[in-house]
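TODO from last week: model G-protein coupled receptors family 1 profile domain-containing protein.
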Amino acid sequence: MLNLTSAFDSPRWIEITSGLWILLLFALGIALNGLTMGVYVKYPKMVNVTSFFTVAIITNGLLSSALGYIPVIIAEFSGHWLVHMSEDSCIAEALIVYYFGCSSMFLHVCIAYIRYQGIVALPISNAPVEKWRVALAFGACQLLSLVLAVSPLLGLGAYGLEAHGTSCGLAWNDRSRAGLGYLILIGTVCYVFPVTFMCVCYVQIVKTVSAGLCTLIL
């Protein structure tokens, strides 16, 4: 049963404006991600250990735009998700968007680490990043994202309509022990840890680059 978290009805002009805005985001997401992916397809030699995770993020953006925006646009122009779509489609849309969102966040962590390795660590260790490590990291990102996205279907957390009733996501108002535990878990795993890790990596990169520039100038 869908967790109905809708709290209020939006004015019609807000729903239409939101629908047009999301339609624009959909078009831009498909066009920009599609063009960028086209460059990599045309020039496959550009795909290497360093750019692999960038290509994966572009793929996530393309699939998320293609699969996640269309039902939301329909719901916005209809006034409510359940006017033309089912509860199951709401859960499916939430799962897809959440999965690709988690995956992209974890892939950004991998990019930060590879840049850290290339700028801060590798000049010292002189050890390249092996392809098997990249494949392992990519697989771990996808597996963790899948586990987190599927967990609400297994009773840990829940998916539901968001406040305005035209899009779906996690049931943020779930105050059960399992629901709160899941929200704390994903807040830590999907936000606090990735952002902290990336900040540490990029701070070290900036320090290293700044020190190198100072050495060249002096």
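Done. The longest helix spans residues 177-217.
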